[in-house]
Amino acid sequence: MLLLLLILAAFLLAIIKYKNIKNIEHKNIKLYWLILLGFAIQIAIFNEKFAQSKLNYLTPTLYILSLIVLLIFLLANFKEYYGIKVTTVGFILNIIVILANKGYMPQSIKQLALSGQMEKIKLLTKYGHFYNATVMTNKTRLNLLGDRILLSMFGKFKTVYSIGDIIIMIGMAIFVFELFAPDKSVEEIFSSTQKQQ
C-alpha cells in the first residue's frame, strides 16, 4: 500500500512539474509484460485457496520464479532509467535474503506486533511461515536484510519492511517521475532544478 502511495505522489509531482503526460509516449520500456507475468504468479500463489491446496509446497519455488521474471524486466531496462537502477539494488537485496532462506522472507515478530498485525503473527507462529514470509529467528539467515523495519509514521498503512523494500519504493517513485520527465536523465533534471533555484 505504501508503495502505491509513493507512486501516486511521484505521479502527481510529475504532473505538477511538467504540466502534461505526453512525455511518457516517447519512453521505451522493454519487456513490460514481464511485470504482469511476475505479479500474476504471485497473485496465484498468495491466497488462501492455494495455501490450502496440495500444491502449496510449490509456493517458495514459484515465488522465486516470479522474482526472477521481475528481475529480468529490471535488468532489461537497467541502462535506461535511474529509478530502475535504484530499484534493482533493493530487489537484489531482497532476492539474496529470500534465496538464503529457501524462498521465504524472514519477518520480525516483535515489529509485526508493533504494527498491529496480530493475525499474521498467529499464522506465522503456528505454521512457521505464511505465504512468502517466515518467522525471523537466530536460525534464519541474513536477518539484517529481512522485514525488520517498522515505518510507524504512516498510521494505518504502517507495516514491516526490509532494507530492500525501502530502496525499491524510492527507486519506483523516481522511475515514475522519470516516465513523465523530458528525455533526459534524472541527474540532469535535478541539476537544472538546482541551478534555477
How would you describe what is shown here?
It is a single chain. The chain is mainly alpha-helical and 197 residues long. It has one domain. It is built from nine helices and five strands; from the N terminus they run αααααβααββββαα. It has a three-stranded mixed beta sheet. Strand 2 and strand 3 (133-135) form a beta hairpin. Helix 2 (33-45) packs antiparallel against helix 4. It is globular. The two termini are 34 Å apart. The mean pLDDT is 88.
> Largest beta sheet: what is the strand line-up?
1-3-2
- What general outline do the C-alpha atoms trace? globular
Q: Number of DSSP strands?
A: 5
Whole-number average pLDDT?
Answer: 88
Q: Give the N-terminus to C-terminus distance in angstroms.
A: 34 Å
Q: Helix segment count?
A: 9
H and E string:
HHHHHEHHEEEEHH
Unreliable segments of 5+ consecutive residues: none
Q: What composes the largest sheet?
A: 3 strands, mixed
Helix share bin: 55-70%
Structural class: mainly alpha
As a whole number of angstroms, the C-alpha radius of gyration is 19 Å
